[in-house]
Specification:
By secondary structure, the chain is an alpha/beta fold. 47% of the residues lie in helices and 21% in strands. Helix 3 runs parallel beside helix 4.
Length: 121
Amino acid sequence: MAKGRVLAVDDQRYFRELISGLLGQEGYEVLTVGSGEEAVRAMERERFDVVVTDLVMPGMSGTDLVRRIKATDPEQDVVVVTGVVDVRSAVDAMKLGASEYLLKPFDRAALAAALDAILQR
């Protein structure tokens, strides 16, 4: 049985595959999508324990996605992952309700520890 179901959202295929591989090795069931719009559609069809989203994406940004998720389901846990070192974006994401904020590049231990902590709450 999987530790939890994760929706990973990133416009870059490399990072979708990286997150999927790392979390799969840690025992999570992972679905990946390439945009905020795809994430919204996936969440209309399925339930996820945690959403892991990139912050900077074309179209719907990670910040917009967090806002949309929280408006629909305030209890949904969201982890924001980004390569942009910007304190303001981190603060904005956390104010919108993100559970965690990780900087790229991240390692498996950091990502797994963040998800484990969220799911134990």
